[in-house]
Amino acid sequence: MAWNVVIAGGGFGGFEVARKLERMLPRHSAQVTLVSDQNYLLYTPLLPGAAAGTLEPRHTVVPLRDQLCDTNLRLGTITGADPARQVVRLTTGDGREDELRYDHLIVSVGSVSRTLPIPGLAEHAFGMKTLPEAIALRNRLLQSLEIAEGIDNPADREPWLTYVFVGAGYAGLEGLAELQDFATDLLDVYPRCRLQGVRFILVEAQARVMPEIPSSLADFAIDELRARGIEVRTSTTIDRLTEESATLSSRTGENEDTVEERVPTRTVVWTAGVKPSPVVKRLGLPLDERSGRIVVDRQLRVEGVDGVWAIGDAAHVPDPRDLTRPAPPTAQHAIRQGRTVAHNVAAALSGGRARTFNYKTLGVFVDLGHGKAVASTLGLRWRGVPAWFLARTYHLASMPGLTRKIRLIADWTVGLFFGRDGAELGRLGHPGKLDTPDQLAAAQHAAEDAPGTGDDRPDAP
After folding, report:
1. Least confident stretch, 187-196, 356-365, 413-422
2. Measured distance CA(451)–CA(428) in Å, rounded
3. What is the pTM of this model?
4. Which residues pair with 375 in a beta bridge?
5. Nearest Cα to Cα of residue 3 among 349, 352, 354
6. Cβ-count burial 347-386 (b if 16+ within 10 Å, e if not)
7. Distance CA 439, CA 140 (A)
8. Could you report the per-residue pLDDT of 182-236, keeping only the tens digit for each?
9. What are the sequence ranges of the domains in the chain?
């Protein structure tokens, strides 16, 4: 009898589990099923490049069926689980409710943006965690430049040319740097916008940016951003948003007095952290009280639940450097956790010995736009062009599939010589409805009856 192995989630961790199990398990010894709400793996470190026109959006994703030959892919959304019955529940793409029985379940459902109850945030802010959000942000930048170019009054133009990023982690710094680089490239074809200039503001609640990297590299990154005219506001929070402004509160002085400032802006991007996917609360598994993640041991096995494992952003994996803290929610950790859990599941099926997750961060890369980056690898610190080259080399090596690697090289090479495309495709994927014959006839009659049309025209015979 073949074992049933179900992988919940097709992100970095889930994809790596499936790929590793295909290599480790004897053919037909187990049926491996990957459940994902989309048929591709999104390579999230390349999202800023997609938003800024450096990369074709399709080149930042990896089709799962192309890379997983022996894995059964089920498109659907995980809605819950029953560990006692060993089933996981899902909703398929056509709305049907279904259950999958498992002998081993690997939970890798990832995370979502962590939001706060800030007035106006849900209504007016943009996210930057998914591909649609990245493309929407690119379109927003282009739309705002077009609108601003048609406004005569500089004061009325200002909100359209001001962009506020909230959160100075990886997503915030890289997204801001790429978008500012993109806007700078486009200003030559927008004369009014070029004369007035664009304004980019980075807001961070903590006293410093990027706590994941050494302070010297973080300081270099901030110096680079400020040299490009970007305003960096640490110890600052956003209190409320409206359609036309954002209210910021900054802590200043020894007594940390609060100073409020109303910033005219039409574009606020929220990148202030992530939280586990809400579905983890419906899986019947033990959760860490503080982080809300699934509690696992060092072998990535869910504590007290047979046959269930958890990895990635949804799991509270002990960090080998400090077992009292969770491992960082980064792609490189999710990939290594996927490899470890794949080995442990294969060992459980064959009576082998499980491994302990011992991976420690080897390096960090922060891409700040064309030719600029900071990096730390194996204790060595890099800045500028060398760091930028290392970052691109790392992402190229990590991207699954030879075809995707070639596409990345092609996009980057074209961008070096020809710049970025400034076309706004906001209606792409949202075509208008087809007109019926009655609607076409009504439109024609309305045009004929309008003043200055038909036989009453001055030049009519």
Report:
1. 413-422
2. 35
3. 0.87
4. 365, 382
5. 349
6. ebbeeeebeebebebebbbbbbbbebbbbbeeeeebbeee
7. 32
8. 999 899 999 999 999 999 999 999 888 887 777 888 888 898 899 999 999 999 9
9. 3-113+275-361, 121-272
Edge-first strand order for the sheet with 363-367 is 363-367, 373-377, 380-383
416 three-state secondary structure: helix
CA angle (42, 43, 46) in 5-degree steps:
125
Task: Give me the CATH topology for the region 3-113+275-361.
Answer: FAD/NAD(P)-binding domain (3.50.50)
pLDDT at 383: 87
Q: How far out from the chain centre does Cα 55 lie?
A: 15
Band (pLDDT 50/70/90 cuts) for residue 430 is low
pLDDT over 90, % of the chain: 64
The pLDDT of residue 457 is 46
pLDDT at 237: 93
61 to 42, 47, 135, 258, 408: CA distances (angstroms): 5, 10, 13, 43, 11
d(CA 50, CA 37): 21
Structural class in CATH, domain 121-272: alpha beta
Q: Which DSSP letter does residue 208 get?
A: S
Same fold, 3-113+275-361 and 121-272: yes
